[in-house]
Design the sequence.
């Protein structure tokens, strides 16, 4: 295997990992505030169709990203209103949000199937972006760098800032945070909105970064992988990064196997396709067995905040 | 000097309840002022209004001579009011430093904050390592965090809500030292408690509440514990009546080298616990919360089964391998500490809750079908004999107040006439009248020859109730001694046990 192929594989892995990483980073913040939003997949699909339509109609990629984030926020606010203001069950609401997002995106995308758009180009000038070796560092679109920056930013925010400390406190013990005088609902709304924006951008990665067209359910369960990844990473941003790239690697292997890529095709491509999901199941089982990992979970995760005694 | 705090005509109404009815009192600078009353007397509601968590419906709060509206805890802290809660508002997964930072309104760089924390800790002898995770700290140490957090704000009034309910006698003394030092510097202290001897030892003035109304303001040093208790409950206090000429029978419950495995991260298992309870004996197990009491109760009730059949025997019959249902059939009933969700299902009717534990002993299930008539009759009997305030056997368990639910649960077990009854915290959060009734029922059950084990953190309760005492510390049980032969100092030392020694070792000097 030559260097060129290895670099090509690496770049594909990074691309495939990016939407998962962005969505999972958003979900990590949401869960740290004590909210379990299982609607990531739905919000991603809403983001994906929004981004596709904006690019299809205007050709503006960055506008598409911003509006996809906005669409993600709008979708997440449905969840926020139901679970935070009305104290609805978070699991059920999150599942409903995914079903909603799937249906809504299919409706909005009717008639646009397989209509081509252009991908978002590399961020850096062509000399760097297409350089045979340096492209491993500079050959990506802005979304890839955005994902990496957000991982660091979220780590820094949670660990080093007062606002991050308050967010963790709210997720750890909502009643105590309330009694000290923090707005639990306010913090959680902000976290859910951030998660929605990130899921929207993650969705935008599909038409802008991976396959330049619209296809129903084009996120193909990556939202679920992102949710699992948060647990897999035991709510730590840098483990999230490692986990997302690992999933990206497995998914890229599938592509190469399908393309008849030498030794990889010895394993049926269906098995490759199933691997990320199998890995998710295995990881969740392992996490459940290992108790110390689960102790890092926010103590109030998934519990509605009911301040009255 | 103007009064530090003056309340006039404070009234607070909740749906269906008048929590505070026209309450007026005042606190002088440097005064340690007790707020005394039973559960539900309105103490917590009152201080929540002073601390800005709730707003009064009527009445005026005057602070340092100025009428004020305390709109939020933040506003309260700005005025110089600090509060240490009964249930700590701490975040277990965060460090001491992070916890304190969360309670501070001003943004102080972490390094400066740490220096100030160490200074306050040294000044008041409250030693703690700021970088330890709260989950690893004892209850007494956790309380120190709350106190340090409050003291950093240099409060002029410190509200302490039932601060000693979880402390060893030695820790209580340390706390009182800190409070006296604070008061000497001019900080007023509002001390909420229902422990009368503490109030007599510590406080200058006591305001007594009953049913939301102010009953009396008095000097606790001029009163007896009994006279204050009677003002608190508004009636004469009943003493426990013990039958004449009681003698212990044969050993009934024998526990030998009973151990449990460590299950969770922060659980304390029990380690080779041995004791014997005779027929007619009430055996008390004292100890600070979190020293293996839960594991011990579960191991005795059968929720945790032993590997060794002989580790628990009743009248010589080995029970160690049996589950709760089988143990109940053999006469061992148990009441866990958590009444809603463990001892009773809140969403079930009282009648259904009776079926859950009494079905076999009282034949409430015939061929797999519930005899609901029998369950209703039995539940009605429990309600009548234990004066449970409930509409009837069909009431939801969760709709009862804590004290009433506890009376129901105790009644449900006691009327099954178990030969061994194990109870944890039988009167926790229960008012004095109900507590007296529960104590009397336990004494009566012992009088007919049952062996009773009482696990409690309330030393007064154990002293009043038990024939024999032992102390649990870090999962190990001290040798049992007759209650009358044990001094409070001896019990206190056993409660602190090994733990007190390691605590001093861990603490980092400033």
Sequence:
């Amino acid at each position: 295997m030559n260097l060129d192929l290895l670099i090509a594989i690496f770049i594909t892995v990074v691309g495939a990992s990016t939407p998962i990483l962005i969505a999972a980073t958003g979900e990590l913040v949401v869960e740290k505030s004590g909210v379990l939003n299982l609607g990531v997949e739905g919000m991603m699909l809403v983001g994906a169709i929004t981004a596709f339509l904006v690019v299809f109609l205007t050709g503006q990629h960055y506008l598409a990203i911003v509006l996809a984030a906005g669409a993600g926020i709008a979708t997440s606010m449905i969840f926020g209103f139901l679970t935070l203001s009305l104290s609805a069950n978070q699991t059920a609401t999150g599942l409903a949000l995914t079903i909603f997002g799937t249906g809504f995106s299919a409706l909005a995308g009717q008639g646009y199937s397989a209509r081509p758009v252009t991908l978002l180009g590399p961020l850096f000038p062509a000399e760097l972006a297409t350089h045979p070796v340096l492209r491993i560092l500079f050959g990506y679109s802005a979304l890839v760098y955005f994902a990496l920056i957000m991982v660091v930013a979220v780590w820094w925010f949670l660990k080093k800032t007062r606002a991050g400390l308050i967010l963790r406190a709210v997720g750890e013990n909502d009643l105590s945070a309330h009694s000290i005088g923090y707005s639990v609902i306010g913090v959680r709304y902000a976290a859910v909105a951030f998660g929605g924006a990130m899921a929207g951008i993650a969705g935008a990665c599909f038409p802008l970064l991976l396959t330049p067209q619209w296809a129903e359910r084009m996120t193909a369960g990556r939202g679920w992988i992102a949710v699992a990844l948060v647990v897999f990473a035991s709510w730590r941003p840098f483990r999230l990064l490692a986990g997302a790239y690992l999933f990206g690697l497995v998914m890229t292997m599938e592509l190469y196997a399908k393309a008849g890529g030498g030794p990889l095709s010895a394993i049926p491509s269906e098995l490759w396709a199933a691997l990320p999901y199998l890995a998710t199941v295995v990881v969740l089982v392992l996490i459940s067995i290992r108790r110390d990992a689960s102790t890092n979970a926010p103590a109030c995760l998934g519990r509605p905040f009911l301040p009255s005694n | 000097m103007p009064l530090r705090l003056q309340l006039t005509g404070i009234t607070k109404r909740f749906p269906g309840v008048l929590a505070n009815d026209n309450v007026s009192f005042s606190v002088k600078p440097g005064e340690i002022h007790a707020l005394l009353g039973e559960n539900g007397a309105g103490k917590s509601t009152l201080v929540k209004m002073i601390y800005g968590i709730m707003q009064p419906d009527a009445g005026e709060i005057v602070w340092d001579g100025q009428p004020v509206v305390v709109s939020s805890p933040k506003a309260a802290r700005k005025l110089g009011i600090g509060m240490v809660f009964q249930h700590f508002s701490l975040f277990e997964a965060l460090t001491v430093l992070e916890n304190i930072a969360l309670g501070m309104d001003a943004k102080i760089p972490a390094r400066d904050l740490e220096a100030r924390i160490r200074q306050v800790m040294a000044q008041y002898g409250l030693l703690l390592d700021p970088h330890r995770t709260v989950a690893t700290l004892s209850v007494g140490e956790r309380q120190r965090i709350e106190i340090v957090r409050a003291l950093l704000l240099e409060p002029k009034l410190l509200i302490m809500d039932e601060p000693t309910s979880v402390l060893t006698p030695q820790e209580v003394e340390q706390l009182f030292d800190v409070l006296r030092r604070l008061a000497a510097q001019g900080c007023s202290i509002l001390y909420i408690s229902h422990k009368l001897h503490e109030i007599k030892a510590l406080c200058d003035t006591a305001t007594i509440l009953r049913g939301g109304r102010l009953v009396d303001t008095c000097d606790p040093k001029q009163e007896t514990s009994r006279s204050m208790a009677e003002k608190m409950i508004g009636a004469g206090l009943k003493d426990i009546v013990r039958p004449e000429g009681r003698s212990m029978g044969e050993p009934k419950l024998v526990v030998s080298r009973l151990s449990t495995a460590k299950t969770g991260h922060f659980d304390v298992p029990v380690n080779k616990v041995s004791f014997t309870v005779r027929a007619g004996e009430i055996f008390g197990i004292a100890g600070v919360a979190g020293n293996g009491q839960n594991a011990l109760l579960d191991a005795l009730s059968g929720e945790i089964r032993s590997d060794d059949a002989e580790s628990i025997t009743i009248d010589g019959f080995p029970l160690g391998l049996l589950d709760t249902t089988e143990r109940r059939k053999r006469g061992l009933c148990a009441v866990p500490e958590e009444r809603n969700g463990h001892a009773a299902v809140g969403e079930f009717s009282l009648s259904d809750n009776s079926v859950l534990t009494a079905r076999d002993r009282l034949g409430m299930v015939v061929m797999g079908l519930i005899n609901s008539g029998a369950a209703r009759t039995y539940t009605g009997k429990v309600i009548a004999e234990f004066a449970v305030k409930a509409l009837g056997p069909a009431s939801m368990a969760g709709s009862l107040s804590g004290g009433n639910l506890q009376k129901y649960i105790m009644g449900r077990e006691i009327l099954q006439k178990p030969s061994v009854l194990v109870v944890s915290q039988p009167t926790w959060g229960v008012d004095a009248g109900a507590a007296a009734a529960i104590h009397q029922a336990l004494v009566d059950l012992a009088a007919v020859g049952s062996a009773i084990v009482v696990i409690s953190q309330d030393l007064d309760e154990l002293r009043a109730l038990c024939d024999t005492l032992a102390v649990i510390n870090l999962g190990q049980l001290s040798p049992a001694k007759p209650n009358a032969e044990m001094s409070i100092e001896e019990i206190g030392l056993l409660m602190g046990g090994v733990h007190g020694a390691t605590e001093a070792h861990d603490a980092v000097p400033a």
Observations:
- The two ends of chain A are 66 Å apart (CA to CA).
- Chain A has a mean pLDDT of 88.
